[in-house]
Write a structure and sequence with these properties.
Elements (H helix, E strand, L loop, with lengths): L5 H9 L11 H5 L7 H14 L4 H4 L2 E6 L5 H16 L3 E6 L2 H12 L13 E3 L2 E7 L11 E8 H9 L17 E5 L6 H4 L7 H18 L5 E6 L7 H7 L3 E5 L1 H6 L5 E7 L3 H21 L7 E5 L3 H16 L3 H14 L6 H10 L3 H11 L5 E3 L8 H7 L11 E4 L12 E6 L8 H14 L6 E2 L2 E2 L17 E7 L2 H13 L4 E3 L2 E6 L3 H4 L2 H5 L1 E9 L16 E5 L4 E3 L6 E3 L4 E6 L3 H9 L6 H7 L6 H6 L8 E7 L9 H22 L3 E11 H4 L3 E6 L13 E4 L10 E4 L1 H20 L2 E6 L6 E2 L6 E2 L3 E6 L4 E6 L4 H4 L3 H9 L7 E3 L5 E5 L7 H15 L1
Parallel strand pairs: 1-7, 1-8, 2-5, 2-6, 4-5, 6-7, 9-16, 9-17, 10-12, 10-13, 11-12, 13-16, 20-24, 25-34, 33-35
Antiparallel strand pairs: 3-4, 14-15, 18-26, 19-25, 21-22, 23-24, 27-28, 29-32, 30-31, 32-33
Helix pairs in contact: 3-5, 7-9, 12-13, 14-15, 18-19, 22-25
Length: about 850
């Protein structure tokens, strides 16, 4: 028997050109309230595949969806209900879990159409033209009505008690013997104590769970068509007993690491500090409010939540009181002192604390204090440890935290929220109590909570909502609202165990592990006229529109694709000598059927319609993309074949592979050439001091940043070089070599120009190709001035490995001296823009740079 889990075996079948994965029926899409994400569609297809099998009642009557917290397991569950009702005739569903809180949440998800988290179509479920109702029951009817889904919601504890202690008009094994059932088990890891256990003594809770597992197994065996479908984010497949039980049952696997890598979660950052609880709570409060202000500044509607996590109820209740006192007693003078102290302590410009305290320094603190006192009160703080907490009102507040009318901003808790809590706008978890346990059991629980808090908040920005991170590769101020911060103690034993727990839970964590390299603009430079009043010229951008992207041509994708087909290559062992079979060749065009395109597209998630549409706004369907002559409809694939071979000799998989190679090429060009703005030939000045300032480069202590020529970045003292505007040069080896080159020419340049300054461009000055969308930031600017002109010279060092890929940048730079349509908007000076060939450590190319430099500047 294969040791691969069921998911992997299905995946291989789906990757087979001769296996066509099932298409999700339209009624599933139509009857869900949310669009399915690509991985959710995949999960449903995998499930459908098992249920279409002749052996479904035997081999696939018990399945598990192993999906990350926050990945939308309940939406997949809702789709599963629709599928089994329509295709298999199932009407009786028992949803069970180990927590009353999750039951209340699921009741809203599956039955309350007024709830924001309702998962079915709010206008009603319609299948085959008939309305279908969901009826919540305690027992199932003997004669079920047509077009009705019967749903029993219960805890596993209550289900076990009902069946083992029968009562009149209640569920019994006997009454269910002739009833076909679908058992839906959420947080399913709780019903595996019997499987997990070995010879060790079980504690009371484990003994209880052991009986639950037996109850569920007995129910499943009651009827031949019964189904048990489990959903969990937590299953230990390193446990051999669990692996043996589930390897043939894990129908879909999408773990948290995969979920986070795909961008569907917040980033997770640990904030370690040696501070007392009061200071940590205060910092957490200010960081949460900073997030809210940053969001407001960018037109984003956000109410960020803080969770204060304690290890004991008494500690949590006391922390709640202290927190309220901190807010009530806050004054403008006290807050100013906190901000000033914070700025003096957190000097790293890349630190979230530095950014936060600098932000508050510029803000009206009277306004801030008023906001904090208004937004953090008894009425806006929930304590999940109060005896009254389980009231229906509190449960509703806890599960609607994103709603505009929900006032809650902070929650104090011990362990009640580790499972079953759906919250998207949790951004800060503050760990309370230095004396808290650092045991592995504690950190496992906290890792689970962090995973829950990592759920992404789909905010609307610039008119667009997204369920995926948008600012990983930008310097946007909005990064904090795509980040969960876990405020924790700086205790080695605790941190070591927490890191192990996070790793076991597949949670990717970012932590401050950087050396700080800083370059400052020299004070005498700041006093000079060119710095105070001068300008740096960059080209204006204009918005692109759908009309700019009407065909492959607009993405630099060629509709003629040449492929050299090799029948065989012989490589001699050790010598590495290769012999290619067949030296005489001819060219033949590969005919590509619509079915082949469909199969290739299906195997590449980039070409899922929702994603493709975001890059190619002019298409209305994948069918149009395939057939339209502006796209795949006019594609010509030319094969260079050995004499004696024809296209007919190619196996279907080989043809598919060739089409997939083209799609990969097209994807790369589509991604790199689609932007919201394109460059123009009009250059306008931006104040020098706005673009050039002190900057910091942080070097990873473990994996130091490597430049594109595989040389480590270092600082170089430039205080004695008046022509370099920074006190330090933070550069790699090739960039340092360029500085040496300029130094060799300083005297010659100074004879011709009154002012000569070399400027390191640290990701501030950006130009975009004219009539194109590709932009870049030249590494250096050389500022020159004589009696007649001011020259702005762009200089770009380029390593061998990037030269060919970045050739378009050199073409752009050189065009600055040759184009006749370039317009420079300057009010008070004559400006000339100059681009020089790439600087290289290759001797031939370095000579070409030298000649170009001398010709244009000397």
């Amino acid at each position: 028997m294969s040791n691969e889990i069921l998911h992997a075996r299905i995946e291989k079948r789906f990757n087979d050109i001769f296996e066509t994965p099932p298409e999700i029926p339209d009624y599933i899409y139509a009857n869900l309230s949310h669009d399915l994400r690509p991985y959710q569609e995949e999960a449903i297809r995998y499930f459908m595949y098992t249920q279409q099998s002749d052996a479904a009642d035997i081999s696939f009557n018990h399945l598990l969806f192993h999906m990350a917290t926050g990945s939308g397991k309940t939406l997949v569950l809702a789709a599963t209900i629709l599928y089994l009702f329509k295709e298999k005739g199932h009407q009786n569903f028992i949803f069970f879990v180990n927590s009353d809180a999750i039951i209340k949440k699921t009741f809203d998800n599956l039955t309350n159409s007024a709830s924001l988290k309702y998962l079915f179509n709010r206008e009603g479920i319609i299948i085959d033209g008939s309305p279908v109702t969901i009826q919540v029951v305690d027992v199932f009817p003997t004669l079920p009505a047509n077009h009705t889904i019967y749903l029993k919601l219960t805890t596993i504890q209550k289900l076990h008690m009902d069946l083992t202690n029968p009562r009149e008009n209640g569920l019994t094994y006997e009454s269910l013997k002739e009833t076909d059932l679908v058992l839906l088990a959420d947080e399913a890891h709780h019903i595996n104590a019997l499987t997990r256990s070995d010879k060790k003594k079980l504690d009371t809770k484990e003994l209880e769970e052991k009986t639950w597992e037996s109850t569920v197994s007995k129910l499943l065996r009651q009827h031949s068509s019964n189904r048990l479908i489990e959903y969990t984010a937590t299953i230990d497949l390193n446990n051999d007993a669990l692996f043996q039980k589930y390897r043939d049952r894990i129908v879909f696997q999408y773990d948290l690491k995969h979920f986070m890598e795909d961008g569907y979660s917040k980033n997770v950052v640990l904030l370690r500090a040696n501070e007392d609880d009061s200071q940590k709570m205060l910092n957490g409060l200010l960081l949460s409010q900073y997030r809210k202000y940053i969001a407001q500044d960018h037109g984003v509607d956000l109410k960020p939540i803080i969770l204060f996590k304690s290890n004991k109820i008494a500690t949590s209740l006391e922390a709640n009181k202290i927190f309220l006192s901190l807010v009530e007693e806050m004054t403008v003078e006290g807050l100013k002192a906190i901000v000033d102290r914070g700025i003096s302590i957190y000097q790293n410009a890349q630190s979230i604390w530095h950014k936060m305290f600098v932000y508050y320094r510029e803000k009206d603190l009277n306004h801030v204090v008023r906001d904090l006192k208004w937004e953090f009160t008894h009425g806006t703080i929930l304590n999940a440890n109060d005896a009254s907490f389980l009231s229906e009102g509190n449960a509703l507040l806890l599960n609607t935290l994103e709603d505009g009318g929900n006032p809650v901003r902070a929650i104090f808790a011990v362990a009640k929220l580790n499972e079953g809590w759906d919250v998207l706008n949790l951004f800060d978890i503050v760990r309370i109590s230095e004396g808290a346990s650092s045991s592995k059991k504690t950190t496992d629980s906290e890792a689970q909570l962090i995973g829950r808090g990592a759920r992404y908040y789909p905010f609307v920005h610039e008119g667009k909502s997204s369920y995926i991170r948008r600012f990983d590769y930008s310097n946007s101020d909005l990064k904090p609202i795509e980040t969960l911060h876990y405020h924790t103690i700086n205790d080695n034993a605790y941190i070591k165990n927490l890191e192990k727990s996070l790793e076991a839970a597949n949670i990717q964590v970012k932590e401050d592990q950087y050396d700080r390299l800083e370059a400052k603009v020299k004070q005498k430079i700041r006093k000079m006229d060119f710095f105070k009043n001068g300008k740096i010229y960059i080209n204006k951008l204009v918005p692109t529109s759908a009309a700019d992207y009407e065909s492959f041509k607009d993405y630099n994708v060629s509709q003629v694709y040449d492929v050299l087909y090799e029948t065989a290559v012989e490589q001699q062992y050790l010598s590495g000598q290769t012999t290619i079979a067949g030296t005489k060749r001819y060219e033949e065009q590969l005919p590509v059927s619509k079915m082949l395109f469909q199969k290739a597209i299906q195997r590449n998630t980039f070409y899922r319609f929702n994603n493709l549409k975001s890059y190619i706004p002019n298409i209305s369907s994948v069918k149009q993309f395939i057939e339209d002559k502006r796209f795949l409809g006019n594609l010509k694939i030319n094969l260079s074949l050995p004499q004696g071979m024809t296209v007919q000799d190619l196996a279907p998989k080989e043809k598919l592979s060739i089409v997939e190679r083209f799609l990969a090429y097209a994807e790369k060009n589509i991604r790199s050439n689609y932007m919201k703005e394109r460059g123009t030939a009009v250059f306008e000045g931006v104040a020098f001091s706005r673009l050039i300032d002190d900057y910091v480069v942080e070097m990873n202590k473990v994996n130091q940043r490597i430049s594109n020529v595989t040389q480590v970045v270092r600082t170089r003292n430039m205080r004695d070089h008046d022509w370099y505007i920074y006190d330090q040069a933070i550069v790699n080896g090739l960039e340092s070599s360029l500085i040496d080159f300029i130094n060799d020419y300083i005297e010659t340049l100074s004879e011709k120009y009154e002012e000569v300054y070399l400027i390191r461009n640290e990701r501030k000055v950006k130009v975009v190709e004219i009539d194109g969308v590709r932009g870049f930031m030249p590494d250096f600017l050389l500022y020159l001035k004589n009696a007649d002109y001011t020259y702005q010279v762009f200089i770009e060092p380029k390593g061998d490995n990037l030269r060919e890929h970045d050739e378009w940048k050199q073409e752009f730079l050189l065009s600055l001296s040759t184009r006749t349509d370039i317009e420079i908007l300057s009010e008070s000076e004559e400006v000339r823009l100059v681009g020089i060939k790439f600087y290289s450590d290759n001797q031939e190319l370095k000579q070409a740079f030298r000649e170009d430099f001398q010709e244009k500047l000397l």
